[in-house]
Design goal:
Layout (H helix, E strand, L loop, with lengths): L42 E9 L10 E6 L4 E6 L6 E7 L4 E2 L5 E2 L2 E7 L7 E7 L23 E5 L2 E6 L2 E2 L12
Parallel strand pairs: 1-10, 1-11, 8-9
Antiparallel strand pairs: 1-4, 2-3, 2-7, 5-6, 7-8, 9-10
Length: 178
């Protein structure tokens, strides 16, 4: 017969633990805050926070951003204290698909964080873009949840946007199966 700990588990057995994440080691360079693609356009700043189910910051998450209208990629870690992130790029523009549909300007985002076995996929759209109303992917999202995909101008500043990623709970960001 084995000895039991006070919590009723066999002595010498430890609970399983999530290993990592270790994104800051080898995957993220703290100086990566710009993903300026070639071409002309309006330089913008996007800032936000990755939040957990309780609305608390996730200080060890990583975001990968792809810009579908031009060749641009960025990888950003969240701040070790407040879970914030910030990056600069050119404002994305609408993109016509081979089937004739036009997608609103957006950024594709992958989110990596502790406790996630697979990365999460979402998009950042920009509030006020006239093409949002006819975007075929945005149209798949229930209207009440579309706001979770919108970056909003900060205090009316034209080229600075706020976008938070809520991993779950109230106001959870819409994530797509890919």
């Amino acid at each position: 017969m084995s000895t039991l700990n006070q919590n009723g588990t066999p002595a010498g057995v430890t609970p399983s633990q999530t290993v990592g994440p270790y994104f800051k080691i080898g995957l993220i360079d703290e100086r990566w805050t710009r993903m300026i693609p070639p071409g002309e356009g309006s330089l913008i700043t996007v800032a936000g926070t990755v939040l957990d189910a309780d609305g608390k910051p996730v200080p060890d998450a990583m975001l990968e951003i792809w810009q579908p209208d031009r060749p641009a990629f960025g990888r950003f870690g969240t701040d070790r204290v407040d879970g914030s992130f910030i990056f600069q790029t050119l404002l994305p523009v609408g993109l016509q698909q081979p089937d004739g549909a036009t997608h609103a300007g957006h950024l594709n985002v992958s989110v990596f964080a502790r406790g996630l076995l697979k990365r999460l996929h979402t998009r950042i759209y920009f509030e006020g873009d006239a093409l949002n109303a006819s975007d075929p992917v945005l149209a798949l999202v229930p209207e009440a949840r579309r706001a979770t995909l919108m970056a909003r101008p900060v205090n009316g500043v034209e080229r600075r946007f706020s976008f938070d990623v809520r991993l779950c709970g109230p106001g959870e960001t819409v994530f797509f199966d890919c």
